[in-house]
Amino acid sequence: GWNLNSLQYPSCLHICCTNLHCGKETAFLTDLRSAVEEVRAHPEKYAGGSAAVYGMAHSIPDATLLEPIARGFVDALFSG
């Protein structure tokens, strides 16, 4: 499978390519196109989760608030 990570400053995606991925570029692009089409067709299904939290953090104008917000999120995530 594929594991892409969202990053910011600038907004982008990161993927680690290893020997297991060599020769599978066409499959990756096919899967990526399919995923983009799915999200565009049904954005409401993908409005939550960690990507939404990460995107929200990117929109906070005062970056000093990010650490306490992130700590609170991680604490809530692992406290249950």
Description:
The protein is mainly alpha-helical and 80 residues long. It is 52% helix and 10% strand. A two-stranded antiparallel sheet has the order 1-2. A hairpin with a 4-residue loop joins strand 1 and strand 2. The chain is extended, with a radius of gyration of 16 Å.
Q: Give the helix/strand class.
A: mainly alpha
CA-CA gap between termini: 29 Å
Q: Kindly state the mean pLDDT as a whole number?
A: 82
Number of strands: 2
Compute the gyration radius: what is it? 16 Å
- Strand content of the residues, in percent? 5-15%
Largest sheet: 2 strands, antiparallel
Please list the strands of the largest sheet in the order they lie side by side: 1-2
Overall shape: extended
Please count the helical segments. Answer: 3
Unreliable runs: none
How much helix is in the residues? 40-55%
Order of helices and strands: EEHHH
Can you give keywords for this protein?
single chain, 80 residues, mainly alpha, two-stranded antiparallel ribbon, 2 strands
Offer a quick outline of the entry.
With 80 residues, the chain is mainly α. Helix content is 52%, strand content 10%.
Write the layout of secondary structure elements.
Layout: E1 4-7, E2 12-15, H1 25-41, H2 49-59, H3 66-79
Antiparallel strand pairs: 1-2
